[in-house]
Amino acid sequence: MIDDLYQEVILDHSKRPRNFGPMESPSATAEGFNPLCGDRLTLELKLDGNIVADARFKGAGCAISVASASLMTETLKGKTKAEAEQLFEKFHRMLTTDSAVGEIGKLAVFSGVKEFPARVKCATLAWHTLHAALQNSHEKVSTE
Ligand code: ZN
Known about the structure:
Blueprint: H1 2-15, E1 28-34, E2 39-48, E3 51-60, H2 63-76, H3 81-96, H4 117-134, E4 140-142
Bound molecules: zinc ion (ZN).
């Protein structure tokens, strides 16, 4: 069952999040909060011109929010800012509509979250925070 495989990946990333912990001298940072669930994270980026050279996060939240941040930071490295924003758009579309989104790689493991609308904000929190960091906003992001 593909759903079981997806759940395994999410569980693995929530228990052993990748790119977790502080970064030395980040070039962009943003904080995100999802009051519905209590998920909180701080995202730090190292930008090399237009390229996301490194991404790390800190914080605490439910399994889906942590796994999403973990997989997002993995996916982002080496992407341009524009590619990162495109991925956010695809990811959001995958979770909120039935339209085909095309190639989304490992992020497809979150496709089942669409069936649980209350959890969509858990899965997209990291991405909303990324959007704020890329805009170089230092405002706190809330999904509400
Ligand atoms: Zn959550």
